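Standup notes
- DV: blocked on the single-chain target, sequence here:
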Amino acid sequence: MTSRILQLLQERYSPERGWILIPELRIGTGFGKDKEQRLDAWAICCWQTREPDGPAIVRLSVHTVAFEIKISRNDALQEFRNPDKRWHAHGIAHQFFFVAPQGVIEKEWLESDEGLLELRGDRLECIKQAAVRPIGMPRWTFVASIVRRLANSGSTPSRAADEDQKPGAACTPLAD
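- DV (later): unblocked, structure below
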């Protein structure tokens, strides 16, 4: 079931839409007892998009999303007992979503800024939209982890230059 959820996330956050989704991404490069956490999936829109930001002001932005996949209710309950686990993910993603089969996670369990995507039949449905938060610059160890994963997977953006993009087209949060 996890592989099906990852496949649906890949379709939703695809290179054709300007995104790269990286499954099983470590937050850093350390090993041993002090190894960093890992994200079930992390997506980045690779094309800067012009967005209105007040009168006659244009801001360029990229957008990142972190995903935590929970297949069983027991696994989800364990996660919600330790919310500090998600602290790193909140620091490197503009949005954070739990992704689970229908009925595994109760909407009321979520923090106010967390989102929920549910697997319903053969599609992901947005049950609760995640808030868009500002984030700081990523640490170099996180950047190195991304580069390692992409180098090992051969994944690259397939979209042509972004000069012809419409404002807000690629890097806006996706919702149902």
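- Follow-up: The radius of gyration is 16 Å.
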